[in-house]
Write a structure and sequence with these properties.
The chain is an alpha+beta fold. The protein contains ten helices and 15 strands. This is HXXXD-type acyl-transferase family protein. It comes from Rhododendron simsii (Sims's rhododendron).
Length: 424
């Protein structure tokens, strides 16, 4: 495929001076654990607007192109999210520890306009494996979160294809989780459609566990950079599961385990886990692990953590067993173990990890000329066994972006038991 050409890069600040209500935001334990990881990278494909749609969208603005309109509305959206126009701040202490915070200094976010010639949306979406060019649709690649001290906490790249646009967003993961990420995108699309306010204002008050002092000191200095790790060749494939297929997996899992508490998502993830293990030539007594990233929103008892909380509320929970036991007991038992692990939440190579959520509003992001036609993610935090969840285009459906070595993905595609639940 053709290469992506950068047309322009602009530092975008809020349209008005940031108010005094938010100036410095301390990082919590949830935030700090992500400093050495990569950012969140998610993006949306849109068909190009028709001439009449474009004329209607730009009629009441001073902009003359879709890209300029997106840049203008991006600046207005940042007014409601001043942390994203700031930088990370660091205080290094005499005891070799450091404290991190968000400096809401309006240093600005990046807005990049790019073009890729002779590539259509179908050229990207139709292949069985996700083309590598998708990673070039995102800015700030190969950048750990602690680099937010000098680099933008938010960058957007609008890439023009022959028949559409891709809006790729990279956001510092030490500053936001998936819920906060999509709240910004949802709010930006609202403003792009002409709204002067947003439906879900972010809440910047910090939440710290009882007994944890603030600011938190951690044994981290900027000199302690890890060596760059180059993973083996990996491929990505998106598997689509319809609402009906998911319902069948759920019903079977609950019926065969004698319960009614296994959710649709738990049954689906168990189905994926068993297939991945089944498609590998590993010893039956070898340990296998599935890491679930569980949000604390709505789970913490006696806390004032609001739904609009801006920041991270996610912590990992691992389910561990052996390959032999997993394959012997099957999907339904795996789903039950996931259900138990999630219910307990109140305050490597043979491992899988799930990020994102089909509950996030991705397909409701209409920037003024129609809803997206697909969602994709960038290269950040990709490893062998990474599963990324998206809602499907059809209501109730789910897309799972699976990142594995090529031979494992090929085996999954040939796994009849697994593919019976997949809709191509």
């Amino acid at each position: 495929m053709a290469e992506v050409r950068s047309i322009s890069t602009t530092t975008v600040r809020t349209v008005n001076p940031v108010g005094e209500s938010v100036d410095r935001i301390e990082l919590t334990p949830w935030d700090l654990q992500l400093l050495s990881l990569g950012p969140i990278q998610k993006g949306l494909f849109f068909l190009k607007p028709t001439p009449s749609q474009q004329e209607q969208l730009l009629r009441s603005t001073t902009t003359t192109t879709i890209v300029d309109h997106l840049k203008s509305s991006f600046s207005r959206a940042l007014y409601f999210f001043p942390p994203l126009a700031g930088r990370l701040g660091i205080t290094e202490h005499d005891d070799s520890t450091s404290s991190f915070f968000i400096d809401c200094n309006n240093a600005g976010a990046d807005f990049i306009h790019a073009v890729v010639d002779n590539v259509t949306i179908s050229d990207v979406l139709d292949p069985i494996f996700v083309p590598r060019i998708v990673h070039s649709f995102f800015p700030l690649n190969v950048l750990p979160n602690y680099e937010g001290i000098s680099k933008p906490l938010l960058a957007v790249q609008v890439t023009e294809l022959v028949d559409g646009f891709f809006i790729g967003c990279t956001m510092n993961h030490a500053v936001v989780d998936g819920s906060s990420f999509w709240n910004f995108i949802n709010s930006w699309s609202e403003i792009s459609r002409g709204s002067h306010s947003i439906s879900r204002p972010p809440v910047f008050d910090r939440w710290f566990p009882t007994g944890v002092g603030c600011p938190i000191r951690i044994p981290f200095t900027l000199k302690e950079k890890e060596d760059t790790f180059f993973p083996p060749s990996l491929e990505e494939r998106v598997f689509h599961f319809t609402k009906a297929k998911i319902a069948a997996l759920k019903a079977k899992a609950n019926a065969e385990t004698g319960t009614s508490t296994i959710s649709s998502l738990q049954a689906l993830l168990a189905h994926l886990w068993v297939s991945v293990v089944r498609c590998q030539s590993i010893s039956p007594d070898q340990e296998v692990r599935y890491t679930l990233l569980i949000s604390a929103r709505g789970r913490l008892k006696n806390s004032s953590l609001p739904e609009g909380y801006f920041g991270n509320t996610v912590h990992p929970t691992a389910i561990t067993t052996t390959a032999g036991e997993l394959l012997e007991k099957g999907v339904n038992r795996a789903a039950l173990e996931m259900n138990k692990a999630i219910a307990l939440q109140t305050s490597d190579q043979n491992g899988l990890a799930t990020s994102s959520s089909p509950r996030f509003d991705m397909y409701g992001n209409d920037f003024g000329w129609g809803k997206p036609v697909a969602v994709r993610s960038g290269s950040a935090n990709k490893k062998d066994g990474k599963m990324t969840l998206f809602p499907g285009v059809e209501e109730g459906s789910i897309d799972v972006e699976v990142c594995l070595t090529p031979e494992k993905l090929v085996s999954m595609g040939e796994d009849k038991e697994f593919m019976e639940a997949v809709t191509i």
